[in-house]
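User: Second chain of the day. Same drill as before.
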Amino acid sequence: METIAVYWEPKIRVYGLTTRSGLSLYTLIFPIARLAYWGGVVGSLEIKGSEFELINLQTASATTMQLCLLPAQDEQAADVRMILETGAEHEEATCFKVVTPVELIYLHGPHFQDRYGIADAALRPLHTARIPILSAGCAGTSVYLVVSENRAEEAAACLSETFVF
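Assistant: Same format as last time:
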């Protein structure tokens, strides 16, 4: 017999909310069959010392994947962009999009792994306030949200309805 404890509170306590501005979001949409190729490209970027605030991969359709990359520093962003653009130009059925500048919001919670519904608790108030999320990801005890420039402060105010910082 296994016992599972579920932690629940009306307003979710977090260690804090952090925002970063002046970032660039790079999105690639490519055929699923090219996943190994693009995985190799991302791996080569990390070998070259590029750091990322967020790497998010998801299915875009039955035949395509969507890869979102948010380089950590502006100096690296130009190099990353050039490598991705060049790769996309030579890859059939691949689309490369850039949104810049964007802002990143991330929440770190002590009980995110013990509680279901954390992503919904973060996304629902932003949806209600009509704040578009350009990319989102969850890892361990963190939730990452990418929003358009000058929207992070408004998004943080919305998140304060659900979370205690």
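The CA atoms of residues 107 and 158 lie 13 Å apart.

User: Great, on to the next one.
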